[in-house]
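Predict fold of Heme haloperoxidase family profile domain-containing protein; 285 aa.
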Amino acid sequence: MFILFKIFHDIAFFSWDLGLTFVNLVLPNRPVGKVTPEGHPGYGGKWPEYIPPQEGDSRCSCPALNAMANHGILPRDGKNIQFKEMGRLIRTTYNFSSSFCYFVPHYAAEKVVKKDYNKDTFNLDELDRHNGIEHDASLCREDSALCPDQSKPHVEYITQLLAHATGKDKDGNPLLTMKDLSKYSSKRRADARIYNKENFTLSFIHRMFGSSNSSTMLTIFGGRVKDLETFLLEERLPENWESRVRGKMGLTFAAFNLTVTPVELMISEKKYLKEKAAKEANKDD
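Predicted 3D structure, encoded as tokens:
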């Protein structure tokens, strides 16, 4: 009976998501400057005061959730958060679709922290159960075996990531591209296998999680290096910033996967290692 329910549930969910994707195709986009709904934090690019985490506050490996807590959109201490409320606030802050914001908190509740979605609350650091949502070879965190506190950004990795940007916007400002993300992900995965040799794991699902996390930099942030520098290093939303996703219904899974899938498919640890060996050989010559 449970299997039958799960099948019908999944069919209903993906039908819902595809329906929202279609609506985005036919309805006009949200106007620039009004992506965040009126009456919600961030409307018109005016975000609540940024306060870095204080001693005793709870934070996790997700910069997007940490930034929301740092601005007081989620509780500033990062504690006693309702799953449903988290989904609602992610939607209005980053313009993800209602289907996306239904799935993610349910997955976090049921698969990661093992709590009741409707009744329980959670602290942000509870999301960092290894190989739940948190995973090895992150683009902005050291592996948990090397750095158990996953709440802190790893400055070296973020600096390297942003230095990989090869794109330019119409004003000549640097942009990260799909190829840039895939190239740096290749490096991180290959390097992590070496530096975290005894503990490294990266299943298919966590490879996809990794590419999904990195793809938000292209979708929600439009690849803009200046905004990403503030977001990733300080876990702060820049003044006057709004999501680059302007679809009326927000970013759906179907639309998101048009970025996630190519990013993942272009990742090649072998290619990275081959190019690295060639560079080292040229130095020796």
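The longest strand covers residues 81-82.
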